[in-house]
Structure formats: structure tokens, C-alpha cells
Amino acid sequence: GAGVSQSPSNKVTEKGKDVELRCDPISGHTALYWYRQSLGQGLEFLIYFQGNSAPDKSGLPSDRFSAERTGGSVSTLTIQRTQQEDSAVYLCASSLVPDRVPETQYFGPGTRLLVL
Amino acid sequence: DAKTTQPPSMDCAEGRAANLPCNHSTISGNEYVYWYRQIHSQGPQYIIHGLKNNETNEMASLIITEDRKSSTLILPHATLRDTAVYYCIVRVRNNNAGNMLTFGGGTRLMVKP
């Protein structure tokens, strides 16, 4: 596609429910990143994929968070037993070759998650 | 990655050039200067990057000083849709930790009619 797409664009859920967020990177991009951004705050790194593997999961805030990527393309971020502090905008970015200079990350529009 | 300093806010008249400064006095030789912006309620948008030469693309121009300690992003004819927070970041070459992005406070540019 022309850019990174994410779905849903908005998600409202009740505390304790599970949610799945989807990211479709730019076709051919090998690296994929998940970030989150709370209201008025900067980017918080969550996880990075190179192909289907995730060499860096250091940013996942708890074991309720998991992510996978299949076929080197689509990625899903799953949050189990959501809490109110999980409310944020979840952003996905992709890049062509992460270890090539310069690497440029292109972002999707984000998924706005609200946990009631 | 080197730290950057930007003014917290700026105003610009519609149709005029917007010049956004960034200080990165501790930049090292293998670090690039990148600019992103974030329009309200949207994901960050890549604008431009450079190493030491001035760069221009369809969105903006990037002027980097000879000593590389500062740079200026120029939007030649600002429009109302350019109202956004602009982030200047410095990124090291071949960061094996996955090249995660970190945004500082940025400059909130308000383009006024």
C-alpha cells in the first residue's frame, strides 16, 4: 500500500478485556516498530521486529502485552486484561532496512485505545 | 544519540517562510539530523534528514551549519496545514538496538492566517 495502515482507528474497551491492534507496514519494509503515545507525551518504544523475529522486546510494559508478525508483513499487538493506564495512542512504524544508513521510519495513523 | 534543543513554540504567518531552529552541539561525526512533525491526532510524519550538506525535498529544506552544531528546518511557504509539533532528532549510524525513535519536546508551530 501507499503507507502504513493501522486498524482499528479507535477502540473503546472495558477494563479486563483483551484487545488486538493491527499494523500493515509499507510493502517490502523489513523492520516494524510499535510505539505508544499517551496524551501530550512523547513516544514510548514497545517492540521491534526484523522480519518475523523480535530482537528487542524491552519496551513491552508487562507480560499482558505481546506482539507477533507473520509473513514478514502484518503485525498484531495484543493487550490482555486491559487496564485504564493502557489508554494511549498505539503507533506502528516501518522501515526498509534497519541497519542501513540512513534508516527512515514511516508511521501509521495510530490506534486510539480507551480503556474504561 | 545526541541531545537536541528546540524552542517550545513559534508562530508564522500563512504564506511566509517558517524557520525552525535546532541546537545539537554534542553531535558526533556519525550522527544524522532528522526532522519529523506530528499534526494533532495523527502519527508522526517524516520530513527530511541530513548529515552535513544542506538538503531539500518537496516538503522542506534543511540547513546544517558547517560545524554541524545546529540546523534549521525551513518550510518555504507555510500553510495552515503545517501547524504541528516539529521534532528535531539526532540518530546514530547503525544503532543495533533497532533504531528506536525518541522525541524530545519539539517546537509547536502555529501558522496563522
For the biggest sheet of chain B, the summary is:
5 strands, mixed
Strand content of chain A: over 45%
Strand order of the largest sheet of chain B: 1-9-8-3-4
Assign a percent range to the helix content of chain B.
Answer: under 10%
User: Low-confidence stretches of chain B at least 5 residues in length (pLDDT < 50)?
Assistant: none
Alpha carbon gyration radius of chain A = 13 Å
Helix count of chain A, per DSSP? 0
What separation lies between the terminal Cα atoms of chain A?
Answer: 33 Å
Percentage of β-strand residues of chain B = over 45%
Number of helical regions of chain B: 0
| Multimeric state | heterodimer
- How many beta strands in the DSSP annotation of chain A? 11
Strand-pairing-aware structural class of chain B: mainly beta
The value of Rg of chain B in angstroms is 14 Å
Structural class of chain A: mainly beta
Report on the structure:
The complex is a heterodimer of chains A (about 120) and B (about 110). Chain A is globular, with a radius of gyration of 13 Å. Chain A is built from no helices and eleven strands. Chain A is mainly beta. Helix content of chain B is about 0%, strand content about 45%. In chain B, strands 1-9-8-3-4 form a five-stranded mixed beta sheet, with no helix packed on it. In chain B, strands 2-7-6-5 form a four-stranded antiparallel beta sheet, with no helix packed on it. The mean pLDDT of chain B is about 90. The radius of gyration of chain B is 14 Å and the shape is globular. Chain B has about 110 residues and is mainly β. The chains are: A mainly beta (about 120), B mainly beta (about 110).
